[in-house]
Design a protein that fits this description.
By secondary structure, the chain is an alpha+beta fold. The protein has helices at residues 5-21, 36-52, 63-66, and strands at 25-30, 57-62.
């Protein structure tokens, strides 16, 4: 998988904006425990949240936990 930081930022901004308009909560599911690119994903999503969306509740979850 190849993601650029800017692509992740774009997706994070969209997801966080939607979350803001739909109750203010977002859960970002990733595979950071196994995939290096997912660690980058988690880091960038958190940074976008901290920069511009502190009013949205952001939770990170390993995708394996979301599949229960």
């Amino acid at each position: 998988m190849t993601y650029t930081t800017e692509a992740i930022r774009r997706i994070a901004r969209l997801a966080l904006a939607l979350a803001r308009s739909r109750g203010g909560r977002l859960c970002s599911a990733d595979k950071a425990n196994v995939l290096e690119v997912s660690a980058l994903w988690r880091e960038v999503v958190q940074a976008v949240h901290d920069e511009a969306y502190p009013d949205v509740s952001l939770q990170h979850m390993h995708v394996d936990n979301a599949c229960g």
